[in-house]
Design goal:
410 residues; mainly alpha; two-stranded antiparallel ribbon; 4 strands; 48% helix
């Protein structure tokens, strides 16, 4: 029995609740010879997710189908695009079996739509689950925020009423506002012998959820999708690069921000700045660096850039990829009549193109392999990167032989 719970509510929670991501397909490092993939769009990707019946099987934060895993709760934040494509590859036999069992028809998805879908899935991987207002209220007391700030009808006259920020749905913007006011806040806390509270990403999400629940108007300020290219430009212009390194480029004062696993959510990246605000300001003052001022939209761009850099795929090895094509048995069918020649993907093989081809041809491949009594091979994310590199650099035939001038394998 498929559950269909308020898909429109999912859209409201996702698109109003957080800053949107740019597609990592446009930001990921492809092998040098590969053609740059089309950049997906998160909003269009949501439409693909619904229109192509993905939501009939998959839920997002509890809203949607129960046939497949909940894509908002699979701890997929550490997945790169290649790892996502590999997960789809490994899931194909079970997925098509379930679709057949539930009588869900296969619907075509073209490459542009798959790029949009990847953008949406990356967006889902980067956000936090919906906050808990009750826990947010408790945290405000535990962290002693209410000592200075007005909350609801309680007024103390020291800090501003937190409800004035209630129209900011994105917790990352709250972290930015807290950073901007850090000097005044730290002075006020020291005067009252209150330690600066450390927050986790989930705690900030809960606090924002509580403040949102107390909004008298329910109005929301929305942001456009973050752009990784603009974020990188701002990262340099605002002197962040003087202290922080991203993929080996930048200063060594602060931590490396491009390493995988550094953070797995938008809010997590933003809250790191708040937890380190005093150290960061001291380091900037000692180097005569002006504290950067960013608008909420600029903050969205910078965080998008950092997230994309953190989860960009490393280039694969064509040699290892060629060996995998041979060892996994791919060349037994492709290029020998049983399957199409994979050379058509040279210079354009990406996680998106592979995922699209897999979606369109997976059922046929699965049936043909069963007829031949060939087991469906599994691929890790690293192996997927190597296979993509091989497809981009050389014809698959090079893994199992070369062709003469008549096109025959020898």
């Amino acid at each position: 029995m498929i559950r269909r719970k308020s898909i429109s509510l999912v859209a409201a929670n996702l698109f109003l609740g957080v800053t949107l991501l740019a597609s990592p397909a446009g930001a990921a490092d492809a092998p040098p010879a590969a053609k740059a993939p089309a950049k997906g769009d998160v909003r269009r990707g949501w439409n693909v997710f619904v229109a192509k019946s993905c939501a009939r099987c998959h839920a997002v934060f509890g809203h949607g189908g129960e046939v497949g895993p909940d894509l908002g709760r699979t701890h997929a934040g550490a997945l790169t695009d290649a790892e996502l494509a590999a997960a789809l590859w490994n899931h194909i036999p079970r997925m098509w079996g379930k679709m057949k069992e539930e009588r869900i028809p296969q619907v075509p998805i073209n490459e542009a739509e798959m790029a949009d879908l990847f953008a949406y899935l990356s967006f889902v991987r980067a956000i936090d689950e919906p906050g808990d207002p009750d826990n947010g209220r408790r945290l405000l007391e535990e962290k002693r925020c209410a000592t200075c700030h007005t909350v609801g009808d309680k007024s103390n006259g020291v800090g501003p009423d937190l409800r004035r920020w209630a129209h900011f749905r994105n917790p990352a913007v709250w972290a930015k506002l807290m950073f901007d006011h850090a000097s005044q806040m730290v002075q006020a806390m020291r005067a009252r012998n209150i330690p600066q509270p450390s927050l986790s990403a989930s705690e900030l999400v809960d606090i924002v959820s509580y403040i949102r629940s107390m909004s008298p108007t329910g109005e929301a300020e929305l942001l456009d999708p973050g752009d990784a290219a603009l974020g990188e430009k701002l990262f340099r212009e605002k002197s962040c690069i003087q202290c922080h390194t991203v993929h080996g480029v930048g200063g060594k004062v602060g931590p490396e921000l491009g390493r995988k696993g550094w953070e797995t959510s938008f809010t997590g990246i933003a809250i790191k700045a708040w937890n380190s605000v005093e150290k960061m300001r001291a380091a900037m003052a000692s180097r005569n660096i002006q504290v950067p001022v960013l608008t909420p939209q600029e903050m969205a761009h910078v965080i998008t850039y950092l997230f994309a850099a953190t989860y960009a795929d490393e280039p694969g090895s064509p040699e290892k990829g060629a060996a995998l094509l041979r060892d996994k048995g791919c060349v037994q069918c492709h290029g020998k009549g049983a399957g199409p020649d994979l050379d058509k993907y040279r210079n354009r093989a990406t996680p998106v193109t592979v995922a699209q081809a897999l979606w369109m041809h997976g059922p046929t491949m699965l049936e043909r392999m069963r007829d031949l009594e060939v087991r469906w091979p599994s691929l890790t994310g690293e192996e997927m990167r190597h296979v993509l590199a091989a497809l981009n650099v050389a014809p698959p035939e090079s893994a199992g032989g070369t062709k003469d001038n008549k096109g025959e394998t020898k």
